[in-house]
Amino acid sequence: MIVTRFAPSPSGRLHLGHAYSAAIGHARARETGGKFRLRIEDLDQTRCKPEFVDGIFEDLRWLGLDWDESVLMQSKRTAAYEAALDELKARGLAYACFCTRADIAQSLTAPHGDAATSYPGTCRNLPDNPRRRATTPHCWRLNSARALELTELPTWTEADGKDFSAKASGIGDAILARKDAPASYHLSCVVDDAASGVTTVVRGVDLRPSTPIQRLLQQLLGLPEPTYLHHPLVTHMDGRRLAKRDLAPTVAAMRDSGVDGPVLVQDLLTDHLPSGFRLQEA
Ligand code: GLU
Questions:
Q1: Closest ligand 1 atom to the C-alpha of 210?
Q2: Whole-structure pTM value
Q3: I want to staple 81 with a disulfide (CB 3.0 to 4.6 A). Which of 57, 118, 183, 251 is the partner?
């Protein structure tokens, strides 16, 4: 049975890009008698607000995108993330990192890529120091070199049948747990996708670079391998990404302007976007 999920962060109102992603995930599940699960990614307590959680429910209902079973709230899942992190720690695959952003920027001679792949490894081989950990803010990182001694470079298949292979250069010492949150996006994502029985991860193509590290974590933790459907992004006609500062059209604003939710979903599923917007592959 196909199980898809929509996993928004409640740090703002949903916009047209979210509606597109949710519409695809919902259709994939409903076409085959599968399930569509909703997960609220609310671990970042500084950016997430309860009113945006309510906004997500309201917007999905208006779009006619009903979800199955209970909503998974990441803020209630700390114990599951800690268990996964403990397992990685016990196998010597996680280390405490005390670097600040400024430390990392300074020690990289040629910064490139994102923080996951460009961490210079300063704390990787420090002896464990529980006293320092008790008194100094730190995150936990994956020891990716050790991980790749234990398991192969991951591969995955996309829903259109294309196969992908991770490159070692795309896998770094990713953060597993943050200074201020019990789990990083990557760790919480793989733990929750597995717990919800997700078979098809539907999300924007901008998140494809996250897939190598997430597949690696699945291999290390013995979690099932989903299929990935990385869909094109909704952008403005000039290619600009939808973002709050861009006055992205929120689902709520479209409702207020008299748009019909289920009709909008049908249009999105047939790649008919409202005027002023288009789909972009990468
Ligand atoms: N919470 C992420 C976002 O809103 C989605 C992550 C995912 O689908 O894997 O962009």
A1: 9
A2: 0.94
A3: 183
